[in-house]
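Aim 2 progress. For ROK family protein, the working sequence is reproduced below.
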Amino acid sequence: MNVFGVDIGGSGIKGAPVDLERGTLAEERHKVLTPQPATPDGVAGCVAEVVEHFGWTGPVGVTFPGVVTGSTVRTAANVDKSWIGVDAGTLLGDRLGGLPVTVLNDADAAGVAEMTFGAGRGRKGTVILLTLGTGIGSALFVDGRLVPNTELGHLELKGHDAETRASTRAKEDEDLSWEHWATRRLRKYLAHVEMLFSPELFIIGGGVSRKADKFLPLIEGIRAEIVPAELQNNAGIVGAGMAAGAA
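Predicted structure tokens for this construct:
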């Protein structure tokens, strides 16, 4: 069974049909740039462009970079603040001609995919997935069950919002070396999260997971096991498809 998944990010919006049996993309994904400013109307138009690229006419799952309860957006750190209070499911469903749409937090979607098909498969105890990109998304699992909308990227770290110090965007904007970013930024952030939650496993997702060999070996002093996401940057699309399939 295939269902469509769309992953809305701060810099790009990508999607593809998802094979729910294998947890893989059924076709090569299509990506467009996130409009700036990333208003509801602008983003909805881009989501429609991605879905229509495949001529899709069935259920659609969509991730959002913020807290989502029901299908209503509660926070919007890396998209336009006008999203707050919007019923994203209704907005996107209308833009897609009445297709059934399921909306969930982007990191939660990636985490569910990784726990089902990827690096967290079969793992018990406390597992935390962190998506490193424009910001830092988080998904917290206890014995395989999701605690939704944790938003651990907004923990305070040395007087700053953690994602402004340890995200991939922070590395790029400040032109930090892999070593500086891994040892002075990401390690300190992981140590802070570990102090609060004592996880057995950290899964590092987002686009930077493709380059895990450049930074994960540099991180020392963390008790938890740290591994890259197996689905890499497709995890959000897969998780979105899974949510649509479950709905």
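The chain has a mean pLDDT of 97. This observation will guide construct design in the next reporting period.
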